[in-house]
Amino acid sequence: MDNLIVIILVVVILLIIAFGVGIYYVITRLYRQLRKRETEAIESIIAAQERERTSISREVHDNLGPMLSITQMQVGYLIEQVQQESKKELLVKIQHQLQDAIKLCRNISHMISSEVDHSKSFETVLREQVAYIHELGNIAIELDIAADIPPIDPVKATSFIRIFQELLVNTIRHAEATQVTIIIEKTSDYLLFIYRDNGRGFEMKSVNSGLGIQNIIKRIEIIGGKQLWNEELGTGMNLQIMVPL
Q: Is 171 contained in some domain?
């Protein structure tokens, strides 16, 4: 009788363990499916954003830029025709403003459409981005790229560019910062990308619902990177991204 009870208890325990393992397997499988669908959804959003970037860049380059150039030529013609000095000075001022607007349109078009491909390395595109920002004069950027950085896959490199752009937008809009520092270096196993500003900082729990931050987080996850955010107010923003080499 005692043996029978022991056998029954063992069978029950084994059934419970099997049931638990089965539940764990099902939950794990569902979680992986949800994560996969979430990643696919984010990738679809990112792809749509890239198409939108291309469309906006083309519109600015092909339509707005030429329209401003034609207007600038017309103003130049008026300057030659006008005799009154005060009006001529005003037209010259307008012409200079148009020149600045044309330059701004060109920079915006390049920034929006920029991506890394076989003809442009990651370092080249990133330096171009920094140069465009310097021309705008909104914020100072210090860029430090180690000499031993290996070639980066164009898809991952373009993701880095988009991450930089999203971070910069957040810095300009919310951080009240005047200085941004970007450091890129290589460890034995990782490519390390550090972005920090001297702004007011933030708490992740208060901003992680924003699309910009979510885009950054998901882009890092998609390229297989690890990320470390500082979350202290008053210390500026500091993000470290590590991507396996």
A: yes
What is the layout of strands, in order, in the sheet containing 190-197? Answer: 140-145, 179-186, 190-197, 238-244, 226-229
Rg (Cα) of the chain, in Å, rounded?
A: 27
Is residue 242 in some structural domain? yes
Query: What single string gives the DSSP state of each residue in 98-167?
Result: HHHHHHHHHHHHHHHH---BTTB-HHHHHHHHHHHHHHHTS-EEEEEE-TTPPP--HHHHHHHHHHHHHH
- Is residue 206 within 8 A of residue 233, CB to CB? The reply is no
The predicted model scores a pTM of 0.67
Determine, yes or no, domain membership for 36. Answer: no
CATH code of 185's domain = 3.30.565.10
Number of domains in the chain: 1
- In which residue ranges of the chain is pLDDT below 70? 1-3, 31, 35, 38-39, 41-43, 45, 57, 61, 202-211, 231-234
* pLDDT, tens digit (0-9, with 9 covering 90-100), for 61-115: 677 778 888 888 888 888 888 888 888 888 888 888 888 888 877 777 777 777 7
Whole-number pLDDT of residue 210: 59
In a domain, 183, yes or no: yes
**Tokens 């043996």 sit at which residue?**
3
Q: CA 92, 96, 101, 106: dihedral to nearest 10 degrees?
A: 130
Domain that holds residue 143: 120-245
